Amino acid sequence: MVLLLMLLHAHNKQDMSVTKTNYTLTFSPPAEGWPSFYSFVPEWMQGMNQYFYSFSGGNLWRHNTNETRNSYYGVNYPSTLQGVFNQEPMVNKLFKTLALEGDHAWAATFVSELQTTGFIDSDFFVEKESDWFAYLRNQGATPASPSQEFPLRSANGVGNCLTAVVVGQVTTFGFALTLPIGNIPSVGDSIYYAVPVIFPAVLTPIYLGQITAITVNIPLGTNTIVVQQDVGGGGILPAVQVNYIMTTKSLVAESHGILGHYGVFTLTNEDTEAVELFAVKSEVMKSFP
Q1: Where in the chain are the domains?
Q2: Is the CB of residue 207 less than 8 Å from the CB of residue 213?
Q3: Residues 162-221: pLDDT tens digits?
Q4: Between 258 and which of 13, 39, 118, 177 could a Cys-Cys bridge form, CB atoms 3.0 to 4.6 Å apart?
Q5: What is the pTM of this model?
């Protein structure tokens, strides 16, 4: 293995600025390729007596003899690996899971051209049949990202309300007795509302807060949803003319996966002992709009 010090330049197409980042790049003569990048940046490198030495800050470091993996010059670095799932690139897909063939779980992020919020913490992985298995989760930002969540069918409509009674930071929405709220909304869901607009203008959902109670008793004339306004999170007091109401589930707890034509995963491991990773797999289904 030969270590070479490289200076890489990244250009921003918008302002043509240049970002300079130092990497240590390895070349393997047997593989005739460049197998890995390293985060440490030595000032000088030298092979001697079957050992490889490097210098940083005037200090000497002997490689491949430290029992603590990913530690260079007294600094611990994470291992990262990036790949892409791009089978049938013309088909829009829903990436549901991530499975690792190896002896340890890694933390993961997952992005596509449509969603950039997929993640899996390392403790979310469960070992099943010698694989480490986990469901892809959404970061679940609140308020939900209009560009990523609403167009991707992550919201559920309730319907037009008749009244919106505000007392302090609590809003009670009343619905017609002929409009069943249904069993999709539940306590803890986030509520969004849209004020009346003139057709064919598009409704703009506005985040309000979380549902604290749902009361449906049609014989007694009750059909309401109670919301605790999240003023600190951007919740806005609705006007009495509030019209359309919609909800979103916790995208972390009930993520439907990551939608896109391709998926880019980045794995991160901060273990200080040796680990092995042989393959990365994903359960994917075709998306039908």
Answers
A1: 2-77, 80-140+255-286, 150-248
A2: no
A3: 888 888 889 999 999 988 888 889 998 989 888 766 555 666 788 899 999 999 998 899
A4: 118
A5: 0.68
The partner residues of 223 in beta bridges, in order of sequence, read 216
In this predicted model, what pLDDT tens digit does every residue of 137-165 receive, in sequence order? 887 667 766 666 665 666 788 988 988 88
Name the nearest CA neighbour of 166 among 196, 193, 205, 197.
Answer: 193
Interval 124-144: pLDDT, tens? 899 988 899 999 888 766 776
Q: What angle do CA 166, 168, 169 make, to 5 degrees?
A: 85
Please state, in angstroms and rounded to a whole number, the distance separating the CA atoms of residues 44 and 41.
9
Cα–Cα dist 134/99, whole Å: 6
CA distances from 110 to 2, 14, 136, 259, 265 (A): 32, 25, 8, 10, 4
